[in-house]
Amino acid sequence: MTSATIHQADYETLAARFRPIFERIAEGASAREKDHRLPYAEIKELAAAGFGALRVPVADGGLGASLPQLFRLLAELAAADSNIPQALRGHFAFVEDRLVSTGAQRAVWLKRFVDGEIAGNSWTEVGAVKIGDVVTKVEPQPDGTFRINGTKYYSTGSIFADWIDTFAQRTDDGTKVIAVVDAHQPGVTHGDDWDGFGQQTTGSGTSTFTDAVVEAEHVIDFETRFKYQTAFYQAVLLAVLAGTVRTASREIAAEVARRTRIFSHGNADSFAADPQILQVVGEVTARAYAAEAVLERAAGALQRAYEAAFLDDLAEEERRNDDAELESAQAQVVLTELATRATSDIFDALGASGTSTAKNLDRHWRNARTAASHNPWVFKARIVGDHAVNGAVPPRVWAIGTGPGQQAGQQPGASKA
């Protein structure tokens, strides 16, 4: 197998397949958020149309999208509803892991993705777990299967999923593994209890496993996980931010265009002709442009990291993976400020009427601020600076949990996965 089997599709052909669905998703996005209605039907429609198989090679029945094409499409979807690409974040990461894997299970999983099956995410432990510890356990059984027990928070997308990509530890030898759990079985429950002020319909919350069955072939050594995974997870959030800013810029332009009331101390006889208002709209629109350019740059680095998995050159593979991590970190630092600034500035163009709950324009800032808060950018900025000054290699795998100075029972901070 070579990397050339993947990126065969034309972007506009891919986009044309999904844009009618994106349009329908956009029509109900604001109302879904107001009413807290999870996008079950919308995700089901995307899966039925092959969206979950975007990265699967054409030869295997998929759509053959490259990583830049995938993230561009995720940004378009985020412009329709920023919650949905984040809900699918764990799915696309698991697809990516299976793409670079070897053995008979690779073909099995690719067919499942082509058939419309969706994977969720379940990594973050609940409670005062020491950093580096894994409380969720998988235990081998006499019949050759495993049983999984544990509770995970921030399990984004799992409530919509057929399979749950779960970080766990074997009880027999202590190996840290990915346990891919069938979501439709007794012993697996999900709670939609994410209480953030933004990204409220991602289906994130608590997943609990109580003696749930895991097939032996679905217990995967974590050390074999695809090496550019943290950069990949971050890039999905970059796509969420880029799409959020795009929609904010479009909505503010439309609001200004149809506004009839003006201010006596303004600069024109119509709001749409006022140069200061046009400046605000122009700045927000330019930030939307920049967001998409930053995302494209980071996605290109990820594509090169993906291709390196097939080069049989470990040194070059490591270099490209480090580069993808640095690119995504720099993009995160830039896009955090850019997106939160743009989604706040839209109110400068409308004044108090822009704060109407009926317009729901504040959802763009809340969603951008929330998406930008995962995996705190301040640590990424320090990592980028350490590389620039000292040549330090960026960490590609990291964990969260209770620090050594914390009291037992104190809840640590965590990033929504």
From TrEMBL:
The keyword Coiled coil applies. InterPro entries: Acyl-CoA_DH_C, Acyl-CoA_Oxase/DH_mid-dom_sf, AcylCo_DH-like_C, AcylCoA_DH/ox_N, AcylCoA_DH/ox_N_sf, AcylCoA_DH/oxidase_NM_dom_sf. Pfam families: Acyl-CoA_dh_2, Acyl-CoA_dh_N. It comes from the Bacteria. Keywords: Coiled coil, Oxidoreductase. Residues 23-117 form the Acyl-CoA dehydrogenase/oxidase N-terminal domain. Residues 307-334 form a coiled coil. The keyword Coiled coil applies. Residues 240-375 form the Acyl-CoA dehydrogenase C-terminal domain. This is Acyl-CoA dehydrogenase family protein.
